[in-house]
Design brief:
By secondary structure, the chain is of the alpha/beta class. The strands form two sheets. Strands 1-2-5-6-7-8-9-10 form an eight-stranded mixed β-sheet, with helices on both faces. It is built from eleven helices and ten strands.
Length: 288
């Protein structure tokens, strides 16, 4: 029998009508969101606001991370009109904070960096008062690709570590912890006036000391903001939850992160990388 979820990781349902309006808009513009593809537990709350995290470069990833619900397989051709459709959808939704992420595209020479830049440039032109946040893959460590994205001047650059170094082989077998840290460090060096952000999941078998060590590594990489949330198994094909971390532990992580010196730490069971991104963005933007 399925394990009953503890009450602190159960999200209250939102009326389906609110969700349907955003889903209809997304389908009209032929757009993907990580909210749907990754089966985010906060989708009802976010879509009802409305807000969404747009996922570019298709809905098939070239990597096979053990935690992620996004489909794996042969990727689609790059859609050069995708940026225009995102601008149209973001305008229709009256977004003041737009988050752009993507599947990992190891098949592309620049990992999809040029499309990230195209979307950011067009959003900044069409919605000059909106904050634009990108949540990128590691681009295989390609520094030139990273420069392309940052040259478009997103307000916030996000790249998630996802887990502690010891669990990378199981959780992110095609990624590298030090490479991801280097992405964040180089992003800040290239664009010191931009905010950097990263996130990890709890409940995959990490220890509290390992989480704290990751926080210190992120601070050493000059990262400004961290998100920490509970891992939830998307299906039986994905990695199992080892532990449902109690809210007081997340609160301790938040306290320690603030002591370490991050500008902002969001740590709670249902925190996700882009959840409440607009509110966090406003706080960070005040320090730009």
């Amino acid at each position: 029998m399925p394990v009953r979820l503890p009450e602190w990781v159960v999200r209250k349902k939102t009326t389906r009508g609110d969700i349907r309006r955003v889903k209809t808009l997304l389908r009209e513009h032929n757009l993907n969101t990580v909210c749907e593809s990754a089966r985010c537990p906060n989708i009802g709350e976010c879509f009802s606001r409305p807000t969404a995290t747009f996922m570019i470069l298709g809905d098939h990833c070239t990597r096979a991370c053990g935690f992620c619900a996004v489909d794996k397989g042969l990727p689609v051709a790059v859609d050069m009109e995708e940026a225009n459709r995102i601008v149209q959808a973001a305008t229709a939704m009256k977004l003041s904070h737009v988050v752009i992420t993507s599947v990992t595209r190891d098949d592309l020479p620049d990992g999809g960096a040029s499309l990230f830049a195209d979307v950011v440039n067009k959003l900044r032109e069409a919605l000059p008062d909106a904050l634009v946040e990108v949540l990128t893959p590691d681009f295989g460590g390609n520094r030139d690709a990273l420069e392309v994205v940052l040259a478009a001047k997103p307000h916030i650059f996000n790249h998630n570590l996802e887990t502690v170094p010891r669990l990378y082989e199981k959780v992110r077998p095609q990624a590298d912890y030090r490479r991801s840290l280097q992405v964040l460090k180089e992003a800040k060096a290239m664009a010191p006036d931009r905010h950097t952000k990263s996130g990890i999941m709890a409940g995959l078998g990490e220890t509290q000391n390992e989480v704290i060590a990751v926080l210190r590594d992120l601070k050493d990489a000059d990262c400004d903001m961290v998100t920490i949330g509970q891992y939830l198994q998307p299906s039986r094909r994905h990695l199992p939850v080892i532990e449902y971390v109690r809210p007081e532990v997340f609160e301790e992580y938040r306290r320690i992160g603030e002591e370490i010196g991050f500008a902002l730490v969001a740590s709670a069971p249902l925190v996700r990388s882009s959840f409440n991104a607009a509110e966090a963005g406003k706080i960070l933007h005040k320090t730009l």
